[in-house]
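anyone seen this seq b4? input:
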Amino acid sequence: RFCLPLVLASLPTMATGEEIAPALQDSWGDFWLFRFFVNAAGYASIVVPGFLLIQYFKRRNYLETGRGICFPVIKSCVFGSEVKSVHQEDGSLPPRAEPTESSTARQIFKLLFCAAGLQASYLTWGVLQERVMTRTYGATETDPGEKFTDSQFLVFMNRILAFTVAGLYCALTKQPRHGAPMYKYSFASLSNILSSWCQYEALKYISFPTQVLAKASKVIPVMMMGKLVSRKSYEYWEYLTAALISVGVSMFLLSSAPNRHVSTVTTFSGVVLLAGYIIFDSFTSNWQDALFTYKMSPVQMMFGVNVFSCLFTVGSLLEQGALLESVRFMARHSEFTAHAVLLSVCSACGQLFIFYTINQFGAAVFTIIMTLRQAFAILLSCLIYGHTVTVVGGLGIAVVFMALFLRVYARSRMKKRSKKLPPGETPVQKV
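predicted toks r here
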């Protein structure tokens, strides 16, 4: 029973941050793998009873035999109210508003507004994410300060604000009639929570530029998940760009020399956490894509996923007693409170900017803006936190972003060509 902590303790730890953390951990709670299983157990305590209830209502044929004040709630949660929209061509995106009788200046202003909003939201979010997870709070000349270690609480903060914003938006604007069974959001919610947790935890072991490049390379597992979950097929250029991204990321990771600063050394734990982030995030996007076959708006999707995210995270935090401890940490360090709140605001606003940008200009323009954001995020992190990049690593970064832009260009060409296809033919689905 002592093998697991000894193995984990032998791994390089805390590759980011101002100081190198001790190689050995003090307690079971300091091991990321142990925390992962504890969090998963907390989610299971909600998921398992929920699964049993759903099976009970389905076996009992509650849709036809049920009565009483609870009937509408149970029907909405377990059965839904509408059949799938089979003929929906691309349910994952709202219908794009055509700029009819809109001046060029107005369109340019909207584009600049979207680009500025996305860059400000996600660049600030990235800088704060690295600050919260890798630096100490309350440090003085005599006291080294303390680090905030509970990634799940940060996930909860992000989700509770996103839930509030999406709920207000749905209440104040006209939305399609909702038909999906509510429980189906829980799958995307669970994978989304786990991917976010892995993302925060990974920053304790790897540098932020490495994490950004790993996010850029997630198109590869997304394609794999698309084949497994949605049975999608892909064009040759998609495989080519995926291979280029793999080469670029490999160049960056292998360029880490032994004499490099310890804060940029990728550790085994960080690689495992990044792999977990990419796998969970790939499942989330594909499951959401399948859910969009029901008639719903992206904001309704945001609301449904975050309802379960809040339920899972707050339940797990309360079971572990970590919620009060995190609140005490906030009370001790007002700077952390400001950072955590601003982190959540940037995350929620960023999601709304995503929906608005795609609605106004389409997915291609949005992808270009977000690709530029990733490049700016690496540059900003290197300037603020002193990460160093070798010549080979810089070439690797260039290859990755060249592949991403090539991907956007090829996709736009394919879209134009698909519009000229005969009515009976359908274009190949792409990620």
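The chain has one domain: 32-56+109-137+147-415. The CA atoms of residues 130 and 203 lie 7 Å apart. kinda curious what u guys think
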